[in-house]
Amino acid sequence: MDTATDARHSFASRANQAVRTLFRPEDLRPQYFVAMGAMAISVLAGARIVEMAGAPMVDATRGLVAGASVVFWSFASWLLPVLIAAGWWRHMVHRVPLSYEPGLWSVVFPLGMYAVAGIYLGRADQMPLVAAIGRAELWLALAAFLATFAGMFLHVWAHAAAPFQPSTVSGRLSPVGGRLSPPADRCGVSSAVRPGGRYRHKPSG
Predict the structure, then answer these.
(1) Number of structural domains, the chain?
(2) Packed helices 105-124 and 56-88: angle between N→C axes, nearest 10 degrees
(3) Is the pLDDT of residue 121 over 80?
(4) Once rounded to an integer, what is the mean pLDDT over residues 153-168?
(5) Is the pLDDT at 79 greater than 80, yes or no?
(6) Is the dihedral of CA 96, 97, 98, 100 positive or negative?
(7) Same domain, 63 and 30
(8) Are 133 and 74 contacting, i.e. CB atoms less than 8 angstroms apart?
């Protein structure tokens, strides 16, 4: 009994160590949501095929496509709480700062695609619950879009609205509070690299 318990604890410890080695909090980027987006695109395509008018190829594959679309939607639905839990583990447990990055748009598109796919699948396969989930999730996608857009706007504003002052040396703009490069002489040598900050020309000849 004790041997079996020790073996389970050892296996759990090694599995936990392996997961921590393979996945660091910094490695769980927003791009992982693309996996759910791929499933949602497949669901939407399948739902559109099911709704197509009668044709020999469509009639032969309609049932298969409808069933496969439900399987893909189920897998995408399973991925959604896993990805949210991974984000919680990254930002809340390990305190990785949540700030704007272009990769956040990789979260917005899959959420919107999942919502639209659920709406179309529910209508095509006559599953009101799936359609209701899609309509409810559409608001989540809209909230994610607005939050990401606001973060992008503030990020661009913070970088574009930083005060600048003209440099008297080359006419280039330098941030206020930063150090301007010291003027260079005719030979291109900066005064900062000269002993004492002075440079005397020896008379030629």
Answers:
(1) 2
(2) 140
(3) yes
(4) 71
(5) yes
(6) negative
(7) yes
(8) no
Task: Give DSSP secondary structure letters for 97-121.
Answer: -----GGGHHHHHHHHHHHHHHHHH
Q: Please, which residues bridge with residue 166 across strands? A: 173
User: Is the whole-model pTM more than 0.90?
Assistant: no
The residue range of the domain holding 66 is 16-160
Residues 182 and 128 in one domain: no
Cβ atoms of residues 130 and 55 within 8 Å: no
- Output the six-digit token pair for 125: 């396969």
CA-CA distances (angstroms) from residue 195 to 101, 150, 184, 192? 45, 50, 14, 8
Res. 10 pLDDT band, cuts 50 70 90? low
Q: Report the pLDDT value the prediction gives residue 14, as an integer from 0 to 100.
A: 62
Of 64, 13, 75, 9, nearest to 41 by C-alpha is: 75
Report the distance separating Cα 38 and Cα 107, nearest Å: 12
pLDDT of residue 106 exceeding 50, the answer is yes
